[in-house]
Amino acid sequence: MSIWEYANPRRFMGWSAPLVPLFSALAALLIALGLVWGFFFTPEDYRMGSTVKIIYIHVPSAMMAINIWVMMLVASLIWLVRRHHVSALAAKAAAPIGVVMTLIALITGAIWGQPMWGTWWAWDPRLTSFLILFLFYLGYMALWAAIEDPDTAADLTGMLCLVGSVFAVLSRYAVNFWNQGLHQGATLSLDAEENISDVFWLPLLVCMAGFGVLFAALVLLRTRTEIRLRRLHVLEARDRTGRKGSGEG
User: Counting Cβ atoms within 10 Å, is residue 100 exposed (0-12), middle (13-18) or buried (19+)?
Assistant: First the structure.
């Protein structure tokens, strides 16, 4: 069986149904474990004090904000190349989740930055690129809402997703591209000198896993909803056409 057969709407609805509650429960468990572990069972940082504990929300949400856009890019490319409707609907379903994750990252970043930098906002390369990514998310959703034909909307939003991917990359690697800026380097790194201590790193990994599984649950749930809405619109269109034909007859 080809992997593309799983993108058939009927097959997708079948295999995704049991995964939504499973992923939801796992996400709740992981996030609760990670946050309780991180906030109540880790020490204060010798430089940042208790402020450092916001990483358990800020880092996973920032990671997901970027990765969700990457997922949307892949789904959009599949739509543009192979015309699988589920992939276009999955990209559409992921966008509001990405908006929320980006907003959480921006807000928690401001809360974190104020005591560290003495300001709620600075036009730092990573902060600025993240703000632009947030605006691209909003533009993507607005374009879907503005175009009535779903295939045309999927085409245009797919192209927008390609352009916005530049800022997704900038958001991830801005600190590496520009040496100046207030934002710190990578929190998790293969470089032992940059990586945070294990006492913070382990609960952070749990939180990141929880956010990832939460996204999987939400995007499956929202994609299922989008498929149902598409079916409903098709039935409504057929009904209108049938009533129009009966009236003319």
Answer: middle
Neighbours of 211 (CB within 10 A): 25
**Distance between CA atoms of 190 and 206, rounded to whole angstroms?**
18
Ordered DSSP codes for 104-126: HHHHHHHHHHHHHHSSS----HH
- Contact between 65 and 211 (Cβ < 8 Å): no
For the segment 92-108, what is each residue's pLDDT rounded down to a tens digit?
A: 999 999 999 999 999 99
What type of residue is 79?
W
Report in angstroms the alpha-carbon separations of 161 from 76, 135, 140: 7, 12, 7
| Helix, strand, coil content of the chain in percent (nearest 5) | 80, 0, 20
Q: How far is CA 160 from CA 140, 164, 217, in A?
A: 7, 6, 25
Summarize pLDDT for 161-213 with one digit per residue, the tens. Answer: 998 887 667 666 655 555 555 455 555 443 444 556 678 889 999 999 999 99
For 168, the token pair is 């997704």
In whole angstroms, give the CA distance from residue 179 to residue 129: 15
Rg over CA atoms, the chain? 21
Residue pair 76/88 in contact by the 8 Å Cβ criterion: yes
Which residue in 61, 95, 102, 133 sits closest to 222, CA to CA? 95
Token pair listed for 125: 């390369």
- Cβ count within 10 A of residue 22: 12
C-beta of residue 31 within 8 angstroms of C-beta of residue 210: yes
Q: Tokens representing 214?
A: 């939460």
Taking the CB of residue 235, how many other CB atoms lie within 10 A of it? 10
